[in-house]
Amino acid sequence: MNKLGNFSEVNLFLVADFETSFYNISEPQDKTFLLLIRGTHSIKDTLTAATGAVVPFHHTVVHEGGVSDVILGYAHCGMVAAARWIAKLATPVLLKAFQNHPDYKLQIVGHSLGGGTAALLTYVLREQKELSSTTCLTFAPGACMTWELADSGNEFITSVINGADLVPAFSAASVDDLIDIRVQVFKIGDDGGSEY
Question: Which residue in 112, 152, 159, 171 is the catalytic one?
Answer without folding.
Answer: 112
